[in-house]
Amino acid sequence: MGQTSLWMFPIYGMAAVIAPVSRHLSSCPLLLRGAIYSVGIFTGEYVSGSFLKKHQMCPWDYSKAKANINGLIRLDYAPLWMFAGLAFEKILAAADPD
């Protein structure tokens, strides 16, 4: 059964970082941009998960997955995070009035 936490609001809010990052990466190749987004999302997930786990408030546990790191991130999610970052980049570019 899934669960969540109020802490997820600021964690998901960190996606706002994609807007300024995407402006700096606009001249980089697609795969490089996707890799950077994936690493950034992994970093945010790992750091926030470590904090929450330390305080016994982490709503996710990937420890049963094969490609997990400390039960906090799943390396097999890398393509999904790449796609998510690139999708947000596209959405933000379409919404940018410049």
Based on the structure, what is the oligomeric state of the protein chains?
single chain
Major sheet details:
2 strands, antiparallel
Structural class by SSE content: mainly alpha
Question: Counting H and I runs of at least 4 residues, what is the number of helices?
Answer: 4
Taken as a percent bin, the fraction of beta residues is under 5%
Number of strands: 2
Provide the residue-averaged pLDDT: 89
Radius of gyration: 15 Å
The neighbouring-strand order within the major sheet is: 1-2
Topology pattern, helix = H, strand = E: HHHEEH
* Intertermini distance: 44 Å
Helix-residue proportion: 55-70%
Task: Report the uncertain regions.
Answer: none
Shape: globular
